[in-house]
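yo

u said u wanted the structure for the complex thing, so here. seqs first:
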Amino acid sequence: MTELTCIVCPKGCRLKVDEENGFAVTGASCPRGTAYGKKELTAPTRTVTSTVAIEGALHSRLPVKTSQEIDRALVKEAVAALKNVQVKAPVSTGDVILENVLGTGTDFIATKTMGRI
Amino acid sequence: MNYDIVVIGGGPAGLAAAVSAWDSGARSVLILERDKELGGILNQCIHNGFGLHYFKEELTGPEYAGRFIELLQQTGVDVKLDTMVLHITDKKEIHAVNTVDGYMIIHAKAIILAMGCRERTRGAIGIPGDRPAGIFTAGTAQRYVNMEGYLCGKRVVVLGSGDIGLIMARRMTLEGAEVLACVELMPYSNGLNRNIVQCLNDYGIPLYLSHTITKIEGKRRVERVIVSKVDENRRPIPGTEMEFNCDTVLLSVGLIPENELTREAGITIDPRTNGAVVFENMETSLSGVFACGNVVHVHDLVDFVSAESAKAGASAAAYLSRNTDGPAVEVKNGNGIGYTVPQKLRLENIEKFTELYFRARQVYGESALVLSCGGKEVLRLHRERMAPGEMEKIILPKAKLAGLTGELTLSVEEETL
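structre next:
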């Protein structure tokens, strides 16, 4: 039995996951929490948010996120992969900034619309 | 210059208030924003976790702001960016300045205060020691790294475990800095549990509860900090000192509503929240001046700011056509309650129900929330758990409030099992 704090939403339910019993989850107040409890102990994932350099916009950084959650163990490497990415304004929310991050099939996408100034 | 409604601040509160005022029929609405873009603090909050309540999906800060900016663009609300409001008068004149219009006086029929809050600094908490470079509020460091592209340090100690501190501990780590510790004065964190898990635990950053920084040392730049354990009265315990060699201290030690304009206009401030005292419709003590979001009380979630601000926007629009004055009952703190918002209820203005937000003064397990009036119980609700870090809400149905006069008291009764 492992105790976890659910991170799906700000409520932060305290979950108990029974590894010996098919990773049965108790303590969650929604189905997403139940799914999280099982996944956290079998194949934990995270959405990664970071920034890339942008030219010609109001600020020098463009915020990005992974379009889906990726393996938790790859988070640091995924952020490092953005280091040399340089984009030019204009950019729209949802634009793909880096495709197929570390071969995960997930893209980094822009989370802000930044016009050219 | 004349407008029916002027919204001061173009962050999440101002955006939601302006959209709501427009949707409620107001057709002469202006937002004044001091930054060069709308969105306020959300622009630097690049992490996700916003919008689960309001949009029923998980968004990053810039995406959440973007949704509201799109909604605003579908209205005829005017926006002046890069514009600083200098004064508000009790006649609802707004003195503001920018580089296009120069100094202007705007006459408004209603004003919505949505200026948000500021971070407490080292000066506010009085940390002893040297005064070198390398001491930042967490939000300042966040703006540097996420918008301007500067990482403000390599070896970091975070003081305070509020959400911004936790988020920045992760952010600095991902950008290559080493976060040595997160130090919290209280025996519990004021941040969300999910942030302790995904920002500290995921990266092996230790959280020291009941500890504080008792000395900062460094000639030009921070060189080390001394961290001590504190007793139950939050006083450092001699002999418990730990030394951390670091170049940066990030402070996440609380937020203060930014109410210079409010005070100057003579609007009544609640010393419990440092925000304006508001009625059920978010109107302040000055008729026709409304307030919403973190300028009223510091919220945990932007979703709740949006909901509160939508209420203020609709109320301001309604104010243009009818007077909302009337007798009010005051809500007082009882046992275990830190504050309530609104602080005053004009029962005639409540349609079906009204919401009462509050914070508990300490951590409670199984307990009952009791609302009473003149010694009589009006409402009793069960809570499994409450903590000062988690804003609570109760719904007050109009039927329960009918005929009440004088003062209401909200209090916590612990249930022993």
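The beta strands of chain A are 2-5, 14-18, 24-26, 45-46, 49-55, 61-66, 70-71, 86-88, 96-98, 108-110. The longest strand of chain A covers residues 49-55.
cya
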